[in-house]
Amino acid sequence: MSDQQDLIQLEKKLLERQEKLEAKQEGLEREKAELEKKREEYVTKLQKVSELTSDEAKQRLLEETEKDASAMMAKIIREKEDEAKRISDKKAQEIVLDSLKHGALNFLPEYTVSVVRVEQEDIKGRIIGKEGRNIRAFEQATGVDVDLDEEGIIRLSSFDQIRREVARLSLEKLLKDTRVQPFRIEEVVQQTRAELEKVMAEEGEKLANEVQVYNLPADMYPLLGRMKFRTSYGQNLLVHTLEETKIGIHIAHEIGANVDVVRLGCLFHDIGKVLEGDGSHVKLGADLLKRYNFPDPIVNAVAEHHEDKPFSSVESIIVHIADAISASRPGARYEDLEKYGQRLGEMEKIAKNYEGVEDAYAFEAGRELRVIINPGKLDDNQTTILARKIQEEVSRSLAVPGEVKVTAIREFRAVFPESTGI
Q1: Which CATH fold topology does 113-205 show?
Q2: Which of 2, 292, 303, 385 is the most exposed place for a label (fewest CB within 10 A)?
Q3: How far apart are CA 326 and CA 375, in angstroms?
Q4: What is the pTM for the complete model shown?
């Protein structure tokens, strides 16, 4: 009986608690309704004061927030741009300086004179020969001017470095040879020319390997090697090419450009300077690469490196910049020497255009032009007239200081078993 009374009592308490909760719920609902009513009244009052609807107020608030955010973003962007400029200028300086450091090379140029030292002065007599016939044959075969006036030294003078190198190597061989006579001199000079072709091929391959270019067509290596014996405004072309290629590769690595295109573009940018043909070295170089089916980006890099055409790629710009850095550094180039070489080359070209001329060599800084005549095509009288014509055309066509001396050499030889002696 007592248990039943306890349950009734508990149920009664639960009902009372439920009633209290329902009453509180009703009170909360009334308060919520009153708050909503007051909120609406407040919004209405705000709209009347501001003369804006709710949507318009939201839009105004968003605009103000966006305006503040834009000002903040613009300020941040300006700060970042200024910082980027400061960093980029410093970074650019670091790239250029580091590139120049990578391309720094030691090179002692011989511009127009090579020197061969002799241990005994009597050796010079053997080089001169009877009545000077040996030295005349040597100058005629090599195209260089020989000066024996200084004690212990023989100076070989020519603006053409290949001729001068052939003469230097030939003379060193002849100094060790007791059979110094015109026929032997010509034979040694011909052998040396053939050997120098091999040397140029080796130098070209060495240059390509230095910049990590491999498997080029075999006949391109001698062309690259000729750069060792060519100057551009007094700057050795092989040294300039190696220096410029290293600079270009470094810049390409730094900015994420195509390194291989830059590498080959720099390597071949001046190849046209050692080629024969009409047109600028830029055109000759680009045409050569086209014949060997090099990819267009590499051909364009060569064709555009002097801005003859608009730049077509970042790589072309890098080749142009690297070329300018190498060429414009203090002491790199001497413009007068380049003009000097061009003038002497033009003198020789004028003489070679005449029929019956086998070869021509300019000496004495362009004051003397020696012309080798084919004895089977011109006689003595015709040779005399031709020398006069060449002298008149050279003086008329070129701004040569002073009077140009033209020496036309016509020599007939009948070769029997070789004689001995000097």
Answers
A1: Ribosomal Protein S8; Chain: A, domain 1 (3.30.1370)
A2: 2
A3: 48
A4: 0.52
Nearest to 154 by CA among 167, 137, 143: 167
338 Cβ neighbours under 8 A, 6+ residues apart:
231, 232, 233, 234
Taking 50 as the threshold, does the pLDDT of residue 330 lie above it?
no
Residue 413 has pLDDT above 90, yes or no: no
Query: Which CATH code of 1.10.3210.10, 3.40.1080.10, 3.30.70.100, 1.10.3720.10 fits the domain covering 230-333?
Result: 1.10.3210.10
Alpha helix (H) ranges present in 304-352? 314-328, 335-352
Average confidence (pLDDT) over 212-239: 82
Of residues 390 and 418, the one with the higher pLDDT is 390
* Burial status of residue 409 (CB atoms within 10 A of its CB: 0-12, 13-18, 19 or more): middle
pLDDT of residue 419 exceeding 70: no
Q: What type of residue sits at position 159?
A: F
Give residue for tokens 């120098």.
196
The span from the CA of 327 to the CA of 265, in Å, is 16
What is the Cα–Cα distance from 311 to 240, expressed in whole angstroms? 22
Tokens of 407: 């020496």
pLDDT band per the 50, 70, 90 thresholds, residue 299:
very high
Terminal Cα distance for the chain, rounded: 159
- Please give the single-letter amino acid code of residue 293: N
Question: What are the residue ranges of CATH 3.30.1370.10 in the chain?
Answer: 113-205
Residue 99 has pLDDT above 70, yes or no: no
Instruction: With a cut of 60, say whether residue 401 has pLDDT above it.
Output: no
Residue limits of CATH 1.10.3210.10 in the chain: 230-333
If one looks up domain 346-410 in CATH, what number appears?
Answer: 3.30.70.1350
